[in-house]
């Protein structure tokens, strides 16, 4: 019988190649070879104004593992405490602002208000901050960068959680932003826009605060003159409707010292009309009171720094950005600088629960 070796050679070659491929695959798996890196998406045709350079800076910085620089943190925190004294005076209390004293407004230095018994009754009795340093603190902004971030567990694990400007909680957001709240701020513009300056029924406003439990509600009652009646109405409503939340006021003396602190460091761009954003203000308070400060939800641009997809201004609504008197890109650059110095950790990507 005549053989046809050319017909046998093709299956034999295929069999040998298959065996070699399988062997090579097992070698790669056994050696723990990492998968190919994810392809960086192309830049969109209309990137956010002025953000490309900063995003590239972020990518470069975040390609390296972050590590706290203890000396840098201690030096910075010590300077904040000695020059701003937020430990003792960030909040107006009955102890530091007695009846008959005059309060000078932080953003209107020519405007003053005498403390009357009625106003005095709304002041918290004593300093709400304990004479100790918290181990971990989370300062949570509201940027849409928190959407699908899986940061909720990490945020809630902090000893002290600070949230800005009455954010929406629950409603499915808890996986990404958490629920725990120890301090929450409220800008008067929110009281005007969402609650009609509290001129009508006030129960909807008070009921909206239940999600924050017994936290401190920080109000800038003495920033501008128009803020005072709004913040007092908020405090009276909370008291009259017996809400567990505790209204308190920023001390304008502290805000002036904090402004001077940053001016002395040449950061004039951050201070527009002498006003820091609420978010940056709370980061500074955290740096005075916390050994490890983690910052979430602070991203001022409409494009994600890593995925390059669209990012909403807030994770919980579709409102467009209206920064008003604040220079948010300059403030973000400041936070990025503190992150790079190991003073605080600024979270921009997705979080891995149990790892911080």
Automatic annotation (TrEMBL):
Recorded topology in the membrane: Single-pass type II membrane protein
Main localization category: Golgi
Subcellular location: Golgi apparatus membrane
Top-rank lineage group of the source organism: Eukaryota
Keyword Membrane: yes
One Gene Ontology molecular-function label: alpha-N-acetylneuraminate alpha-2,8-sialyltransferase activity
InterPro entries named among the record's database cross-references: Glyco_trans_29 (IPR001675), Glycosyltr_29_Sialyltrsf (IPR050943), GT29-like_sf (IPR038578), Sialyl_trans (IPR012163)
GO cellular-component term (any): Golgi membrane
Coiled coil: none
UniProt keywords, alphabetically: Disulfide bond, Glycoprotein, Glycosyltransferase, Golgi apparatus, Membrane, Signal-anchor, Transferase, Transmembrane, Transmembrane helix
Cysteine disulfide partners in this protein: 137-290
GO biological process, one term: oligosaccharide metabolic process
Transmembrane annotation, as ranges: 12-29
Family assignment from sequence similarity: Belongs to the glycosyltransferase 29 family.
UniProt protein name: Alpha-2,8-sialyltransferase 8F-like isoform X2
Species in which this protein is naturally found: Gymnodraco acuticeps
Native organism taxonomy: Eukaryota, Metazoa, Chordata, Craniata, Vertebrata
């Amino acid at each position: 019988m005549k053989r046809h070796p050319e017909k046998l050679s093709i299956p034999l070659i295929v069999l040998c190649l298959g065996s070699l491929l399988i062997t090579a695959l097992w070698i790669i798996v056994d050696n723990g070879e990492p998968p190919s890196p994810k392809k960086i998406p192309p830049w969109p045709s209309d990137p956010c104004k002025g953000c490309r350079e900063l995003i590239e800076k972020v990518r470069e910085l975040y390609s390296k593992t972050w590590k706290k620089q203890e000396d840098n943190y201690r030096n910075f925190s010590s300077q904040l405490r000695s020059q701003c004294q937020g430990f003792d005076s960030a909040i107006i209390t009955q102890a530091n602002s007695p009846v008959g004293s005059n309060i000078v407004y932080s953003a209107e230095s020519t405007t003053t208000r005498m403390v009357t018994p009625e106003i005095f009754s709304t002041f918290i009795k004593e300093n709400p901050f304990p004479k100790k340093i918290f181990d971990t603190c989370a300062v949570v902004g509201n940027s849409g960068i928190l959407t699908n971030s899986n940061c909720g567990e990490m945020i809630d694990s902090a000893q002290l959680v600070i949230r800005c400007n009455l954010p929406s909680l629950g409603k499915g957001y808890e996986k990404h932003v958490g629920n725990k709240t120890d301090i929450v701020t409220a800008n008067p513009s929110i009281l005007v826009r969402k609650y009609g300056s509290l001129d009508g029924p006030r129960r909807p406003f008070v009921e909206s605060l239940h999600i924050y439990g017994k936290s401190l509600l920080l109000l800038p009652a003495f920033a501008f003159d128009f803020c005072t009646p709004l913040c007092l109405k908020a405090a009276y409503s909370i008291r009259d409707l017996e809400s567990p939340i505790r209204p308190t006021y920023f001390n304008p003396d502290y805000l002036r010292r904090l402004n001077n602190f940053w001016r002395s460091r040449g950061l004039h761009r951050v201070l527009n009309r002498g006003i820091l954003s609420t978010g940056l203000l709370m980061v500074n308070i955290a740096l005075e009171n916390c050994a490890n400060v983690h910052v979430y939800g602070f991203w001022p641009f409409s494009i994600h720094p890593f995925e390059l997809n669209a990012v909403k201004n807030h994770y919980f609504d579709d409102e467009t950005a209206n920064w008003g008197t604040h220079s948010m890109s300059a403030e973000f650059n400041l936070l990025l600088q503190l992150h790079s110095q190991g003073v605080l950790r600024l979270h921009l990507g997705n979080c891995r629960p149990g790892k911080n």
